[in-house]
Amino acid sequence: MEDKPEIQVPRVKLGKQGLEVSKLGFGCAGLSGLLNAPLSHEEGCSIIKDSFYKGITFFDTADVYGHNHDNEFMIGKALKQLPREKIQLATKFGITILDDGQPAVKGTPEYVRKCCEASLKRLDVDYIDLYYQHRVDIFVPIEDTMGELKKLVEEGKIKYIGLSEASVDTIKRAHAIHPITALQIEYSLWTREIEDYIIPLCRELGIGIVAYSPLGHGFFGGKAVAESLPKESILATHPKFVGENLDKNKLIYARFSNLAEKYACTPPQLALAWLLHQGDDVVPIPEFAIMRIDNHTTSKQNPCRSTRTNESSLDLSVSAYKDNFQPRPDPIRQHQPVQS
C-alpha cells in the first residue's frame, strides 16, 4: 500500500500537548448526509483516501453523524486502507437523539465512557487522537465531564481532549482539570464573533482553534447562489439561505466572487486563504459536501497556492481584502451576511 501523500500540506501544532496535524483538515460529516444525500461507504472511503494523498491527515467525525452512526463506520473502513500512524483522527460525543427524533445534550461521566468505548469499536481503532465534547451539557458540571475524559487519556483510549462550541467560562474551568488541546467552533468570513473573546482566551491558554464550516456552510462555494441547494440539505431552512436574506447575501457573494477572479483564484480558495492566514493555531476543516478537495488545493507543491505564478493564496487574501474592503483593520466584518 502506498502511504506517502502526493502533496505536502504544511503541518502545525494544535495546543501545547504535542498534537500535530495538517494545516487543512477534512470535515467528514457531509459524507453521510445532512447537507446533501449520503454517499456509499465505497464512495466515502475513496474520497477520504484521495484527500490523504493530497496531503490531508486530519479527519473529523462524530458519533451523531449519519444514520445509526454511519460516519464513524465509514471512517473506520477508510482507515483500514491508510497508515493509521499518519492519521490524526478526531471524533465527538455529547449529542444524542431522543426517541422522538429530537437532539439532546448529555455529558455525564458514565455517558462519556460509554460513547468513547462505542466510537472505538465503530472506528475499529485502539485510540482516538482528539476526542471532543460536541456540545456542553449545562446540567452536568464541566469538571465531572472533564474528570472522566482525563481518565480516558490516562488509560490511552484517547490522546487529547477537545471542546466544541464552549463558552469562555466553560473553557477556563475545563482547562483547569486537564489541558484542552483544541476548541472546535464555527469560524469563517461571515462568522467572526469568536475573535472578540474566544480566540484571545484560547491563545492565552495555548488551545488550538479548529474551524468548522470555514466556507460558511458552502456559501463561499456558491451554495444557493451559483448552484441550487440539494433537496436533502438542512440549509434549505437556514435563515442566511432563504428569502430576502439570501437576496442580500447574493450581492455579497457577487462582490466576493469578483474579488477572487481579480486574484486568479476561486471564491472558496480565497475564503480559505483568509482563514488560513489567521494563524497557525487555526485549522479549517471544510466538508466534502461543500466543495471537493481539488477546489481547495490547486498545486502539488503547496495547498495554499493559487493559480497565479509564485504567489500563495495566503498572500492573495491579505492583499485582496486590504485593497478592496474598508475600513481597516477588520475590512470584511462590515460586510457580514444578513441573518434575521
Overview of the molecule:
- The chain has helices at residues 41-53, 70-79, 109-123, 142-154, 168-177, 198-205, 243-262, 267-276, 313-324, and strands at residues 11-14, 19-22, 26-27, 58-60, 88-93, 95-97, 103-105, 128-133, 158-164, 182-186, 208-212, 282-284.
- α1 packs across α2 (70-79), α3 packs across α4 and α4 (142-154) crosses α5.
- The chain is α/β, with parallel strands linked by helices and 340 residues long.
Defining key terms:
340 residues, alpha/beta, TIM Barrel, eight-stranded parallel beta sheet, 15% strand
Topology:
Elements: E1 11-14, E2 19-22, E3 26-27, H1 41-53, E4 58-60, H2 70-79, E5 88-93, E6 95-97, E7 103-105, H3 109-123, E8 128-133, H4 142-154, E9 158-164, H5 168-177, E10 182-186, H6 198-205, E11 208-212, H7 243-262, H8 267-276, E12 282-284, H9 313-324
Parallel strand pairs: 3-4, 4-5, 5-8, 8-9, 9-10, 10-11, 11-12
Antiparallel strand pairs: 1-2, 6-7
Helix pairs in contact: 1-2, 3-4, 4-5, 5-6, 8-9
Pfam family, one: Aldo_ket_red
Organism: Liquidambar formosana
Domain NADP-dependent oxidoreductase: 23-287
Summed up, what is this model?
One of its GO terms (molecular function) is oxidoreductase activity. This protein has helices at 41-53, 70-79, 109-123, 142-154, 168-177, 198-205, 243-262, 267-276, 313-324; strands at 11-14, 19-22, 26-27, 58-60, 88-93, 95-97, 103-105, 128-133, 158-164, 182-186, 208-212, 282-284. With 340 residues, it is of the alpha/beta class.
